[in-house]
């Protein structure tokens, strides 16, 4: 059984559905820098220009979830769970911001058994 690298909570699923209704197809990007880079950002699909070697770790609700290549190297042994918090995050470019919401990632380290069966990633 292949182990997914990313999942999302029900709250995130509901918010993604709401954003898809308004904006159409979406994508996520998480940079490895400070400030808004530490939070996943939601964009209209194609609304963020990927850099060479950025990594798609999977999809949530049919939306690709991309991470900075350096962030992936640091967190490649961790499972990501996309969640939502009330309030404004450090950024302001993510589509959920006007709704008073902020996407957030929760991490946990994969078990040794999970590491043997991880879903493949794709590179930009």
From TrEMBL:
Superkingdom of this protein's organism: Bacteria
Question: Any idea what this protein is called?
Answer: DUF779 domain-containing protein
* Lineage start: Bacteria, Pseudomonadati, Bacteroidota, Flavobacteriia, Flavobacteriales
């Amino acid at each position: 059984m292949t182990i997914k690298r990313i999942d999302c909570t029900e709250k995130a699923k509901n918010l993604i559905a709401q954003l898809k209704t308004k904006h159409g197809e979406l994508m996520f990007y998480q940079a490895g820098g400070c400030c808004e880079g530490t939070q996943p950002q939601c964009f209209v699909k194609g609304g963020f220009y990927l850099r060479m070697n950025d990594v798609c770790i999977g999809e949530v609700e049919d939306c690709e979830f991309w991470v900075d290549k350096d962030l992936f190297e640091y967190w490649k042994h961790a499972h990501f769970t996309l969640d939502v918090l009330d309030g404004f995050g450090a950024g302001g470019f993510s589509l959920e911001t006007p709704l008073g919401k902020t996407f957030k990632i929760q991490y946990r380290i994969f078990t040794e058994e999970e590491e043997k069966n991880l879903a493949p990633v794709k590179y930009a």
